[in-house]
Amino acid sequence: MMPVKLLMRVGCAALVAALATSTSVAGQTPPKVCMDEPAFRQFDFWVGEWDVYNNANGNLAGRNRIESRENGCVLVEHWTSSSGGTGMSMNYYDSLAENWRQVWIASNYSIDIVGGLNQEGAMVLEGQLHDYRSGQSFEFRGTWTPNEDGTVRQFFERKNPESGEWQVWFDGRYQPRN
Q1: pLDDT tens-digit profile of 10-23?
Q2: Residue 32: CB partners within 8 Å, gap ≥ 6?
Q3: Where are the alpha helices (DSSP H) in the chain?
Q4: Can you give the pLDDT at residue 31?
């Protein structure tokens, strides 16, 4: 009978060898899916450092930094409003479900929305806004539209539960920071 330590070494070596052969073919490194698959790049037009202006009044609403992280697998948003409020989101493409998902967290609410690019090239995500102060949830939709001048329009709507109509929640223009 083999000593336990030797058996463990042989077992570990066999496991490492099995994993190495299962992840590569003839010495080739497997592709990095997030970096190589075009669907993971669909929301890259939003990546950058931005000044965000309210389209309703033209005032600076805040600043936003969108970073591509984890080899292009996730976009991380860092928001600071002009009044000092903050929030962040994680945005990722789920290749199994074939859709984009955003999970946003701020001190008084969260947003969980899914979707993808529409025919015009805008990212449209729909789901729920959870307002912690009121204890209510609302249907919510966000649309990010890349503009030819390098800006991005972010248009958020919340569905009125009584009327069933979509109402503007925020309409902003992302201007690249210098």
Answers
A1: 444 443 344 444 44
A2: 71, 72
A3: 4-23, 33-36
A4: 64
Could you tell me the CATH superfamily of domain 38-176? Answer: Calycin beta-barrel core domain (2.40.128.20)
**Please, what is the Cα angle at 36 between 35 and 38, to 5 degrees?**
105
The rounded distance, in Å, linking the Cα atoms of 26 and 62 is 51
* Residue 30: DSSP 8-state: P
C-alpha distance from residue 49 to each of 21, 60, 80, 101, 159 (Å): 42, 14, 12, 21, 30
pTM listed for this prediction: 0.82
pLDDT tens for each residue of 79-90: 999 999 999 999
Q: Which residues contact residue 98 at a Cβ distance below 8 angstroms, ignoring those fewer than 6 apart?
A: 39, 116
Burial class (CB in 10 A: 0-12, 13-18, 19+), 12: exposed
The Cα 142–Cα 157 span in angstroms is 6
From the number of C-beta atoms within 10 Å of its C-beta (0-12, 13-18, 19+), residue 125 rates as buried
